[in-house]
Amino acid sequence: MKPGFEVRNSSSIIIGALILTVLLVGNLLSHAQTPDARSLGVIRLKVKYKSGDVTKELPRKRFFLIKGTLDDNRMLIDRIKQAEVISRECYYRSKGASLPLIRWLNENDCDSVYCREIEARYLTGSDTVPEFQTAYNLGLPAFKTP
Questions:
Q1: What is the rounded CA–CA span in Å between residue 19 and residue 99?
Q2: Which residues pair with residue 51 across a beta bridge?
Q3: Nearest Cα to Cα of residue 105 among 120, 122, 82
Q4: pTM for the model
Q5: How far apart are CA 111 and CA 94, in angstroms?
Q6: Alpha-carbon distance 110 to 107, whole Å?
Q7: N or C terminus of the chain: which is more exposed, having fewer CB within 10 Å?
Q8: pLDDT (tens digit, 9 = 90+) per residue, 34-47?
Q9: Which of helix, strand or coil describes residue 144?
Q10: What does the alpha-carbon distance between residue 28 and residue 26 come to, in Å, rounded to a whole number?
Q11: What local confidence, expressed as pLDDT, does residue 73 receive?
Q12: In degrees rounded to 5, what are phi and psi of residue 55?
């Protein structure tokens, strides 16, 4: 027997091999079940139509793809049809949003403040959006840099 080596019994080798196998298989399965980032995303459709001699583009609209047939989703469709629809402006006014924020949402065709990067001109000057300025001022001490 060589120095530094010891003979282990076969059961400890088998147990070690089983543990390694379980770890390897678990790791492979966890990666196989994780959805591929390329399979998730957004479908962007631009719809253009002609009215007389003028070609127009429909404004951005959100839609959802729902699995199943029309009959499978009949109850969901009926609930959606009965739901009260409120405009973006009415919704944000009811939440106390400032007029500059509502104007920013409309100009950028956004349903929330997360749809576009906030430009510096919305933090100071005539285009200031008070909500953006407040968030910026609160975040500056925490993040230390603009």
A1: 62
A2: 54
A3: 122
A4: 0.52
A5: 14
A6: 8
A7: N
A8: 555 555 666 777 88
A9: coil
A10: 5
A11: 93
A12: -95, 125
